[in-house]
Write a structure and sequence with these properties.
The structure is a homodimer. The first copy, chain A, is globular, with a radius of gyration of 19 Å. In chain A, strands 4-5-12-11-13-3-2-14 form an 8-stranded antiparallel beta sheet. A 5-stranded antiparallel beta sheet of chain A has the order 6-10-9-8-7. In chain A, strands 1-15-16 form a 3-stranded antiparallel beta sheet, with no helix packed on it. The first copy, chain A, is α+β, with helices and mostly antiparallel strands. The first copy, chain A, is built from 5 helices and 16 strands. In chain A, helix 1 runs antiparallel to helix 5. At the A-B interface, helix 4 and strand 16 of A face helix 4 and strand 16 of B.
């Protein structure tokens, strides 16, 4: 099984090379127009948006961020091991002022579409992989979708498919993959995930004192990185998941050849357990 | 596929009933001799130990806890999305004073052994399920093993299988299931996981300033709950994973019949994404 996967990955890399001229760059610079700086009282978080997968959600979210819509909003639904959700006060005029979005839970892939495959016969999909740093899955049709992993940013909604507007959540626990395709994922945390993990939980267990809503973690500010003064910007590069380096990393991660692995684990990879690394670029180029 | 699973689960429940007279109790009281209170500067955490699965590790860990061995130790290796590891200073006389343990990565199951099955054809194992609140997996032999999930407590080790002594880690990210069977899991967090998630990370990304070791989160104290003064005890009950209630919960979780699921997710369950709930019992009985 392992050898077969190796060949599969090698072939995928060759085809990615053909399709993408930057495939040999191991790191990728973020587009500052699609990068958000989230400031919390306890730390700064950088988010990469995904307009290539969820254009309408990114467009609306970016416009809201641009007009400081979220500044002062609270993380009002934070469940350990699940999600940290924020937004304006439910039912407020601010809340109602935002247009409803049609769901963008999956996207159609062109015939020559390439991605970095990770695993076949994943529990929730025929295949998983990465594209532009985002974990995704696909079945055997021409459809693919971003998957819920820790750090995923998605829009909350009501019971109807097309009911999201401005409330969003970060995944803070084991991947709730059952939400794949039925929610719109439109970004992911690329820096400062530990600060998202430190957001005050609002959900308590039976017998425990309720958390006072005044304790809920506020959003100090949320800005597009282009709107942040140059000397306050956090400039991040992320691994290019379509690069040869990343492909080799997947092969190594699957092989577990370090002597620590005195007995080899199954040669499978959970796409949400493969880290896509970031690095901090101190000075703007 | 869903109907087949339903029947499977129903059968499993019937057989569990036959094997276990307390199967109808939805909640289970913790044995205070196998419960640990971990006090951090920012909160209290309760851990349930698993002597039924990893007796030698629990015996040694409990003895260390009893003599306040860990008080003042630091979480010196904390990697976001992976583990928070603590122990005495590496190579110190305290560190070397502790006997080496033989690995207890899996256990043999008796012929009439029962558990609450969750999923067949999991990515890493033939079957997953729960026993006594612990997530586990098994293949088609008479062997089973506890699985790494968020909140899992396991002993760290060197490259050799039998090299663990006192350093331990909590899983704080997506389940690193590739460590199953080759590490000894001997407990899990049943209360206060958000405080484990708030432990200071020690691992930084390229370009970032290193975290000063004086910032590492210390263990204020770690005590067996029986050694905690009665009025300071945190008494927890956890869901009885072999109960009819829990079995029904699994069926419901798989079915996703709430109208929020306007389109049904695949009828599969990731064992690490099934919460085993706790509740706080305010007064000791």
């Amino acid at each position: 099984m392992f050898k077969k996967s190796l060949i599969l990955l090698a072939l995928a890399f060759v085809s990615a090379c053909g399709a993408n001229e930057v495939a040999d760059q191991p790191w990728r610079t973020l587009d500052l127009n699609n990068t958000v700086l989230l400031t919390l009282l306890h730390g700064k978080v950088v988010i990469e948006l995904a307009p290539q997968f969820s254009p309408k959600h990114v467009e609306q979210f970016s416009a809201l961020v641009k007009k400081s819509f979220y500044d002062g909003a609270k993380f009002y639904r934070v469940i350990d091991g699940f999600v940290a959700q924020a937004g304006p006060k439910d039912g407020s005029s601010k809340d109602k002022s935002v247009p409803i979005l049609a769901i963008e839970g999956q996207f159609t892939t062109a015939k020559n579409w390439s991605f970095a495959p990770v695993q076949n016969d994943d529990l929730f999909a025929a295949t998983t992989g990465f594209k532009d740093g985002f974990a995704l899955a696909r079945d055997n049709s021409d459809s693919a979708w971003l998957t819920h992993c820790p750090g995923t940013l998605a829009m909350a909604r009501g019971n109807e498919a097309d009911s999201a507007s401005s409330h969003f959540y970060f995944v803070i626990g084991q991947a709730p993959r059952y939400l794949d395709k039925i929610m719109t994922i439109f970004g992911r945390v690329v820096y400062g995930m530990q600060h998202i993990q430190a957001i005050q939980r609002t959900s308590v267990i039976a017998g425990e004192k309720a958390v006072d809503s005044r304790m809920h973690t506020p959003i100090v500010s949320m800005k597009l990185m282009t709107d942040v003064p140059v000397n306050e910007r956090l400039l991040i590069e992320v691994e290019n998941t379509e690069s040869a380096n990343f492909s080799e990393k997947l092969v190594k991660r699957r092989a577990r050849s370090h002597e620590f692995f005195y007995k080899k684990p199954p040669s499978v990879l959970d796409v949400c357990q493969v880290p896509v690394n970031s690095r901090l670029v101190k000075l703007q180029g």
